[in-house]
Specification:
alpha+beta; Alpha-Beta Plaits; two-stranded antiparallel sheet; four-stranded antiparallel sheet
């Protein structure tokens, strides 16, 4: 079956419109944040309604009080661990930071953290 150019253009427009209609967080537009923010509701919670919970995340920063202060100013939920590599594998000259999405403006906070030149990856944190 042959379709005209008009039909193909209409199909492409629909595909583009569907992609743009998704929340920006659902698209992979920030390679530093390694989990899907679209799974979180407006309160920063995910999972079934009867078991909603915050998502914990972790990342590494250079060791030192200056970086710790900067991160805490951006993310009030941040806990900093100077001697733990975490699952993410911080080196000896880095500190592990663990935060969570149970806070107002969690998306803005995560994007601000990802914009810091010393933050190279933010992963979901799993506790065992």
């Amino acid at each position: 079956m042959r379709y005209g150019h008009g039909f193909l253009i209409a199909v492409l427009c629909v595909i583009c419109a569907v992609d743009l209609a998704q929340p920006p967080d659902a698209r992979a537009d920030d390679p530093i944040i390694r989990f899907d923010l679209s799974q979180l509701n407006g309160d920063g919670l995910y999972a079934p309604p009867d078991g909603l919970r915050a998502l914990d995340y972790e990342f590494c920063i250079p060791s030192g009080e200056e970086y710790a202060r900067k991160v805490k100013a951006i993310d009030p939920s941040a806990n900093i661990y100077a001697r733990s590599p975490g699952r993410i594998g911080c080196t000896e000259d880095q500190s592990l930071v663990i935060g969570n999405t149970r806070q107002p403006d969690f998306r803005t906070i995560l994007k601000a953290l990802a914009a810091q030149p010393y933050v190279t990856r933010i992963d979901q944190s799993f506790f065992e």
